[in-house]
Write a structure and sequence with these properties.
It is a single chain. The protein is mainly α. A hairpin with a 5-residue loop joins strand 4 and strand 5.
């Protein structure tokens, strides 16, 4: 699987590029491939990469892409409404979102998708010092803040889809246990909890 990670990342970045432009053309695809190759070549040696705790699941990755595309559409509509509405409904806030996995690849993917979504941006990522307990924390700036729990819920849903698409069996199992425990504490089972096979289950 190690030899497939760079090509898979190029395909994923190209798909994001085409999705953001909203136009599937040969020049657009070519530009996406070139930019994806440049990003992979530049970023790959930095340590922010998919590690042994990650793998690739095509069906779950497609589900992640579809979900992210839906978020883009909804967020763009909200921002467009804000532009044409005389009265501003902006309610800005920065929310700390403790992640459930230490995987640099998964957290980078989630942080970038949050930033690519209109109305939200990842302003900082706190990574605990080596040898200390705790998981990375994303600090997300939201233009239409309602409450911290709903803001975190949106990021966690992205995290679950990302783990289902790119996490190995052990990583998906750990996240499934966390999601199930949180659902029990809340008094209801989360309908989108990830099972140990990488699928979302009801």
């Amino acid at each position: 699987m190690n030899g497939l990670r760079a090509p898979v990342l190029v395909v994923w970045l190209t798909a994001l590029w085409v999705l953001l432009w909203g136009d599937v053309t040969v020049p657009n695809l070519a530009a996406g491939v070139v930019i994806a190759l440049v990003v992979v070549v530049i970023a790959w040696p930095t340590g922010t990469r998919f590690t042994a705790s990650t793998s690739f699941h095509p069906v779950a990755a497609l589900r992640y892409l579809v979900y992210f595309a839906g978020r883009l559409v909804v967020s763009n509509l909200v921002v467009a409404r804000e532009i044409v509405t005389p009265r501003s409904s902006l309610n800005r806030a920065i929310v700390a979102v403790p992640m459930h996995t230490a995987s640099a690849g998964i957290n980078t993917l989630v942080a970038n998708c949050v930033t690519l979504t209109p109305g939200t941006i990842t302003v900082d990522v706190h990574v605990p010092d080596p040898g200390t307990a705790g998981m990375p924390t994303l600090y997300v700036h939201a233009l239409h803040f309602v409450d911290a729990e709903s803001a975190r819920r949106d990021v966690y849903r992205l995290e679950r889809y990302a783990v289902a698409a790119f996490g190995d069996r052990s990583l998906r199992a750990v996240l499934a246990e966390v999601v199930h425990a949180e659902a029990v504490d809340a008094g209801a089972v989360d309908a989108e909890a990830v099972d140990d096979g990488g699928r979302t289950s009801t």
